Amino acid sequence: MTMTMTAAFDVPSYLEELSGTIQKLPLPAIDRLVRVLLQAYETGQTIFLFGNGGSAALASHMACDLGKGTAPAAGKRLRAIALTDNVALITAWANDTRYENIFGEQLENLLQPGDVALAISASGNSPNIVAALSFARQAGATTAGIAGFQGGKMKPLCDVCVVVPSDNMQIIEDLHLSIAHSVFRVVRHEIQKTNHTGAALASTGIVPDHSPACLPG
């Protein structure tokens, strides 16, 4: 039996769509997200990441990159925690209350004013994402999101929201990872530069400029 694929579902057409969507990514919003994370580093705040399904995996991945991958040999480190990593706690909240509470209840234990709540959701409409962002805003956190489609219900709850302009779930998830890696690389560069400059100037008494600006726009 010979299998055939329609043009809309073959590999070249998928990659074409992926390439076209890359050209439409909202670079100013990605820049603002970088600035939010660098501000958290400067002030010693914690970044809390969360999402469901593939977005849960990306939250864990991004927390690993930000927490370990940016760590300087010496000096201050960025604080990043994925709320997706404690299975016992997640299932306890889901079982004893509602699945909608699995992230918000964790934030209620840990979140301090000025911390960053970073939600990852393709649709932007997951009830537990919306609930966590709502709590974070009320608690005085900076709220950020990485979404798709039109941003969903989470978009107006975010101080900055990077929306992949696509209605294709796989394209959205592909580019969420690309956004996470591009953000990580810039944040790592800025942290390394800050620590290197600070060490180089420590004996001179000169105070380095730690402005978080790093991308045009």
Structure description:
The structure is a single chain. The protein has helices spanning 11-22, 27-43, 54-69, 87-96, 104-110, 127-138, 169-201; strands spanning 46-51, 79-82, 116-120, 142-147, 160-163. With 217 residues, the protein is of the alpha/beta class. The chain has a single domain (28-201), classed as Rossmann fold. The chain has a 5-stranded parallel sheet, with helices on both faces. Strand 1 (46-51), helix 3 (54-69) and strand 2 form a beta-alpha-beta unit. Helix 2 crosses helix 7 and helix 5 runs parallel beside helix 6 (127-138). The longest helix is centred in the C-terminal third of the chain and has 33 residues, at 169-201.
Largest β-sheet summary: 5 strands, parallel
CATH classification, class level: Alpha Beta
Low-confidence stretches: 199-217
Q: How many separate structural domains?
A: 1
Q: List the total number of helices.
A: 7
CATH architecture classification name: 3-Layer(aba) Sandwich
Give the CA-CA distance, first to last residue. 54 Å
| Helix content, binned percent | 40-55%
CATH topology type = Rossmann fold
Integer-rounded radius of gyration: 19 Å
> Could you report the average pLDDT, rounded to the nearest whole number?
90
Number of strands: 5
Q: Considering the protein shown, what is the CATH homologous superfamily?
A: Glucose-6-phosphate isomerase like protein, domain 1
- Gross morphology: globular
Topology as H/E string? HHEHEHHEHEEH
Secondary structural class: alpha/beta
Strand content: 5-15%
| Strand line-up of the largest beta sheet | 2-1-3-4-5
